[in-house]
C-alpha cells in the first residue's frame, strides 16, 4: 500500500468511529484459510474504533459432520425444519465455529465472548408443518451487548441458542445479524459468504436499492439460491428498519472486507435503503471533493475548468448526487439576473457510477428547479455530450440566439464552439 492511500481511508474514519457494524460470517468463511486475514481486518476496524458484533452460521460445518458420520440432515440453513438429530449436529457445529472465532480473535489480541443475550422461541407450525427445533429470535438484550462493547469485547452470537428454559433452537444467522443490528442501531450489516455477492444473469450486482430487492424476492423466476434469498430478505428488512447499508461480500478473498468499507466503489453487493441516494446543495466543505471528482472530466475537455474560487463564489448553484455517503455526481444551475432562461452546467457523474440513471436524475432535478423558478427554458452547452442531452434528456439543438445576452457574449469569447442545447419548459 502506498502511504498516500491512507488519505483515502482516513476520510471514512470519522464516519464510522464509535459506530456499530455487524459482521455475519458463514461457517464456510470461518473454516476457510483466509479467515486469519479476516481476523486481522477486524483488528484494523477495532483499531479505528469501529465497534464490531459477530453472528455466525454453521451450515458448512454441519455438512462436514453429517458427511463424516453418514447422517442425513433435515435442514442446513436454519430456515427449514430442524429435527432432533439435526439440532444435535447444528449444536456441535455451532460450538465449534464459535470457538474457532474466539480463538481467532484472541490470536489478533481481540477479546470476544459468546453471549446468551439473544433468546429464541420456536418457529412453530407453519402451514400445517411443525418446524420442531427451528427457532426465531424473540429478544435481544441490547444493554448486555452494549456492556460488552463498552469493555472492548466483541459479542459473538451463535446459531443455536436457548429459550431461557434450557431448550435449544437452531436459528438463521442472517436473522441473528439483523436482530443484533436493529436492536443496537448498527450503521451496517456485512454478510460474509464464499460468493462474490448477488449474481444475476451471470453478472455481479454492485448496488441494488431495497425496493428492487423486494421485487426480486417476489419474482418467481429469479434464480437465487436459498442461502442468498435469506440474506436478501434480511437485508431488505434491515433497510426498512432504518439500516441504510447492507453488504454481501466474499469473506474467503483477502482484502474484500476492508475494500468494501474503505473504498467508494465497494467490491461485493451493496443493498441500500431507497432514501439513501439523494441530491443536495453543495457546501464549502464539498468544494475539494467536487474538484477532485471532476478533474478527469476537465482534462478530457468534457467540462470547462472551474477553480475553487469559481465554485465558492456561486456555491448555491451547485448540487451533488450522494450515494452510499459519497459524492458521485454534480450539476450546476445558473440563472442570469432577470433572465427567463436558466443554464444547466457542470453535469458530471463519476465513471464508477455511470449508466445508473444518475445523470438523468440530476438533469430532472435542475429542470424541476427551473420550472419552480418560472423559467421558460433551460440551456446546456456541450462539446462532447450533446447527443446525451438530445437522446436521453429531451433537449434539442439550439443556436447562440437562445442564450441570454450576457451568456452569449461569454460563449463567443470562450471560442470553445460548444453545441447549444435547449429544453423549452412550457411544453
Ligand atoms: C454524460 C453523463 C453525465 C451521463 O451520466 P450517467 O449517469 O452515466 O447517465 P444516465 O445513467 O442518466 O444515462 C445513461 C444512458 O445515456 C447514454 N449516454 C451516456 N453518454 C452519452 C453520450 N455522450 N451520448 C449519448 N448517450 C449517452 C448511455 O449509453 C446510457 O444509455 P441507455 O440508457 O440506453 O443504456 C456522464 O457520462 C458524464 O459525466 N460525462 C462526462 C461529463 C460531461 O460530458 N458532462 C456534460 C457537460 S455539461
General description of the model:
With 427 residues, the chain is an alpha/beta fold. The protein has 2 domains: 5-276, 3-Layer(aba) Sandwich (Carbamate kinase); 278-424, 3-Layer(aba) Sandwich (Aminopeptidase), CATH 3.40.630. The chain has 16 helices and 23 strands. The strands form 6 sheets. The protein has an 8-stranded mixed beta sheet with strand order 3-8-2-1-11-15-16-14, with helices on both faces. Helix 5 crosses helix 6 (84-107). The longest helix is centred in the first third of the chain and has 24 residues, at 84-107. Coenzyme A (COA) binds at residues 297, 302-303, 345, 347-349, 354-360, 380, 382, 384-385, 387-388, 391-392.
Indicate the topology:
Elements: H1 5-10, H2 13-16, E1 20-25, H3 27-30, H4 35-47, E2 51-56, H5 59-69, H6 84-107, E3 111-114, E4 118-122, E5 125-126, E6 129-130, E7 135-140, H7 142-150, E8 153-157, E9 160-162, E10 168-170, H8 173-183, E11 188-193, E12 199-200, E13 203-204, E14 207-209, H9 210-218, H10 226-240, E15 245-250, H11 256-262, E16 269-272, E17 278-281, H12 287-299, H13 308-313, E18 318-323, E19 326-335, E20 341-349, H14 358-372, E21 377-382, H15 386-393, E22 396-397, H16 405-414, E23 419-424
Parallel strand pairs: 1-2, 1-11, 2-8, 3-8, 11-15, 14-16, 20-21
Antiparallel strand pairs: 4-7, 5-6, 9-10, 12-13, 15-16, 17-18, 18-19, 19-20, 21-23, 22-23
Bound molecules: coenzyme A.
Coenzyme A is lined by residues 297, 302-303, 345, 347-349, 354-360, 380, 382, 384-385, 387-388, 391-392.
Amino acid at each position: 500500500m502506498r502511504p498516500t492511500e491512507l488519505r483515502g481511508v482516513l476520510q471514512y474514519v470519522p464516519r464510522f468511529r464509535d459506530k456499530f457494524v455487524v459482521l455475519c460470517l458463514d461457517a464456510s468463511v470461518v473454516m476457510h484459510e483466509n479467515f486469519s486475514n479476516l481476523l486481522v481486518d477486524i483488528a484494523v476496524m477495532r483499531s479505528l474504533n469501529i465497534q464490531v458484533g459477530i453472528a455466525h452460521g454453521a451450515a458448512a460445518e454441519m455438512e462436514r459432520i453429517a458427511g463424516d458420520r453418514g447422517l442425513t440432515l433435515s435442514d442446513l440453513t436454519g430456515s427449514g425444519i430442524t429435527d432432533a438429530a439435526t439440532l444435535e449436529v447444528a449444536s456441535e457445529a455451532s460450538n465449534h465455529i464459535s470457538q474457532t472465532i474466539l480463538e481467532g480473535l484472541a490470536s489478533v489480541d481481540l477479546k470476544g465472548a459468546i453471549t446468551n443475550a439473544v433468546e429464541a422461541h420456536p418457529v412453530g407450525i407453519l402451514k400445517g408443518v411443525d418446524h420442531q427445533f427451528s427457532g426465531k429470535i424473540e429478544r435481544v438484550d441490547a444493554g448486555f451487548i452494549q456492556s460488552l462493547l463498552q469493555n472492548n469485547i466483541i459479542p459473538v452470537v451463535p446459531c443455536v441458542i436457548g429459550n431461557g428454559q434450557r431448550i435449544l433452537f437452531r436459528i438463521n444467522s442472517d436473522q441473528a445479524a439483523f436482530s443484533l443490528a436493529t436492536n443496537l442501531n448498527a450503521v451496517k450489516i456485512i454478510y460474509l459468504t464464499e460468493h462474490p455477492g448477488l449474481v444475476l444473469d451471470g453478472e455481479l450486482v454492485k448496488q441494488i436499492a431495497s425496493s428492487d430487492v423486494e421485487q426480486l424476492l417476489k419474482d418467481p423466476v429469479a434464480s437465487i439460491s436459498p442461502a442468498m434469498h435469506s440474506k436478501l430478505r434480511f437485508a431488505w428488512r434491515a433497510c426498512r428498519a432504518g439500516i441504510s447499508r447492507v453488504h454481501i461480500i466474499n469473506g474467503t478473498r483477502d482484502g474484500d472486507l476492508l475494500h468494501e468499507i474503505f473504498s467508494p466503489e465497494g467490491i461485493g453487493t451493496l443493498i441500500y435503503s431507497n432514501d439513501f441516494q439523494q441530491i443536495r446543495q453543495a457546501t464549502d466543505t464539498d468544494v475539494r471533493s467536487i474538484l477532485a471528482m471532476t478533474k478527469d472530466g476537465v482534462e478530457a475537455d468534457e467540462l470547462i475548468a472551474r477553480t475553487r474560487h469559481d465554485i465558492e463564489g456561486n456555491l448555491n448553484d451547485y448540487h451533488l448526487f450522494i450515494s452510499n455517503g459519497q459524492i458521485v455526481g454534480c450539476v450546476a444551475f445558473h440563472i442570469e439576473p432577470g433572465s427567463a432562461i436558466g443554464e444547466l452546467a457542470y453535469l458530471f457523474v463519476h465513471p464508477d457510477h455511470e449508466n445508473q440513471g444518475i445523470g438523468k436524475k440530476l438533469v430532472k432535478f435542475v429542470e424541476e428547479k427551473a420550472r419552480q423558478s418560472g423559467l421558460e427554458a433551460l440551456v446546456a452547452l456541450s462539446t462532447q455530450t450533446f447527443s446525451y442531452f438530445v437522446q436521453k434528456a429531451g433537449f434539442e439543438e439550439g443556436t447562440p440566439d437562445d442564450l441570454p445576452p450576457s451568456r452569449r457574449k461569454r460563449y463567443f469569447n470562450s471560442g470553445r464552439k460548444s453545441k447549444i442545447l435547449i429544453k423549452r419548459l412550457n411544453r
